[in-house]
């Protein structure tokens, strides 16, 4: 960069501030008697008016919340001096999937389980592909929503300045597409009554569950997922007894010298309660499939970590409600599923909770199956022109078949 005269010019404003910090002093004026009046009996009167005194002010309404003092954390009824490590929907793990495997004591597999793969293509819907392509266009193009969009950036042309644009927000695109796909799955209820009677949907489903990691590190997982499908019957285990027994010899990843809890927030306000999201006696208490929308720009590994953590949280909350918080060995495994999407690419997670013993990394492990980067369609953004020139190509019908396989898993077809 060429140094010009303007850059070499001194900032007198900055210089004045520095001098004022060192030498600037405000002195109150004092009354001093002149020397020629010192020996004369003359009373000196301060000409400055005295400052009036007012009674202390208070709000007209004593309990007006606008003028209440800022509450302290220590005054909260759920405050604890000992903090817990909190994992929520905004927690971004440094090592992503690897770190989540350590925290949940889990052995990974990188394909869908056998009992789910057998269901791919087992059921179909009339005009299935045509309807899904219309859903894609409805979410991305046909929606009349017009809101100011974030400023675009293209790493290939960093100097290019994009114009301000209005259109459909990214979160709305994902929500619209997810709702339409779920409604298409629910249309199977007329053909298979078990899907209609044995499934319940809950938007913004909340879960909260805690456990002790390696004896002295309490971890609290809490947050909401966009949609939760629950069932009146538990999912069958994804892994057989032989797979569970062989997990004893599996070694968890190692992050030494970094602690796996490094990215978890220290939380002093928490409740030692187990929340599944359902009242006691609910007819469909078993978590079946979680649906998460990813409006961030995280890596695939970090998204897998979030999906794994919330599948684990729902399974753990159900285990604590059924068997108590002190149980270490489960009578039978608890299985959950998860579907994550950013509006075009889908990631699938199948989790099986086998043990509640988190004192060490030895012994039986929990199991998880990942199936990543399933592109339903290719969304080609224009390089320099406006977003209205976006192209949608390469529709893949196999992606929805996997979504449908997870949906009908556990039902009598």
Describe this protein's structure.
By secondary structure, the protein is an alpha+beta fold. The protein has one domain. It contains ten helices and 13 strands. The protein has helices at residues 5-8, 12-23, 97-104, 114-117, 128-142, 170-186, 193-197, 241-246, 300-323, 397-408, and strands spanning 79-87, 106-109, 147-148, 166-167, 199-213, 217-231, 265-269, 286-293, 329-341, 345-355, 366-375, 378-380, 391-393. The strands form three sheets. Strands 1, 2, 5, 6, 7, 8, 9, 10 and 11 form a nine-stranded mixed sheet that branches. Strands 3-4 form a two-stranded antiparallel ribbon. A two-stranded antiparallel ribbon has the order 12-13. Helix 3 (97-104) runs parallel beside helix 9 (300-323) and helix 5 (128-142) runs antiparallel to helix 6 (170-186). It is extended and about 115 Å long. The mean pLDDT is 90.
């Amino acid at each position: 960069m060429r140094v010009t005269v303007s850059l070499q010019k001194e900032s007198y404003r900055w210089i004045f501030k520095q001098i004022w910090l060192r030498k600037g002093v405000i002195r109150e004026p004092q009354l001093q008697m002149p020397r020629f009046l010192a020996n004369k009996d003359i009373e000196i009167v301060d000409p400055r008016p005295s400052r009036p005194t007012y009674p202390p002010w208070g709000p007209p309404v004593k309990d007006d919340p606008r003028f209440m003092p800022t509450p302290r954390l220590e005054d909260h009824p759920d405050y604890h001096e000992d903090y817990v490590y909190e994992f929520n929907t905004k927690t971004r793990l440094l090592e992503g999937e690897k770190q989540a495997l350590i925290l949940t004591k889990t052995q990974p597999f990188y394909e869908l389980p056998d009992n789910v793969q057998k269901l791919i293509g087992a059921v179909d819907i009339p005009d299935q592909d045509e309807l899904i392509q219309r859903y894609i266009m409805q979410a991305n193009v046909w929606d009349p929503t017009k809101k100011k969009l974030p400023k675009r950036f293209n790493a290939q042309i960093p100097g290019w300045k994009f114009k301000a644009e209005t259109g459909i927000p990214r979160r709305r695109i994902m929500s619209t597409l997810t709702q339409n796909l779920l409604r298409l799955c629910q249309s199977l209820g007329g053909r298979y009554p078990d899907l209609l009677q044995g499934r319940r949907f809950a938007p913004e489903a909340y879960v909260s569950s805690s456990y002790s990691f390696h004896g002295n590190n309490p971890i609290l997982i809490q947050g909401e997922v966009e949609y939760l499908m629950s069932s009146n019957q538990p999912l069958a285990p994804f892994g057989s007894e032989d797979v569970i027994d062989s997990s004893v010899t599996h070694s968890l990843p190692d992050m030494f010298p970094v602690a796996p809890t490094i990215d978890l927030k220290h939380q002093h306000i928490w409740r030692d309660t187990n929340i599944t999201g359902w009242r006691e006696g609910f007819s469909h208490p078993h978590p079946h499939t979680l649906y998460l929308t990813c409006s961030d720009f995280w890596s695939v590994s970090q998204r897998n970590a979030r999906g794994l953590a919330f599948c684990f949280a729902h399974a753990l909350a159900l285990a604590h409600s059924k068997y108590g918080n002190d149980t270490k060995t489960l009578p039978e495994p608890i299985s959950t599923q998860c579907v994550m999407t950013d509006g075009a690419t889908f990631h699938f997670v199948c989790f099986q909770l086998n043990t509640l013993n988190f004192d060490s990394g030895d012994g039986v492990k929990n199991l998880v199956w990942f199936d990543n980067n399933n592109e339903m369609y290719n969304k080609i953004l224009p390089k320099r022109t406006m977003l209205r020139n976006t192209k949608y190509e390469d529709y893949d019908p196999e992606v929805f078949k996997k979504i449908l396989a997870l949906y009908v898993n556990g039902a009598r077809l």
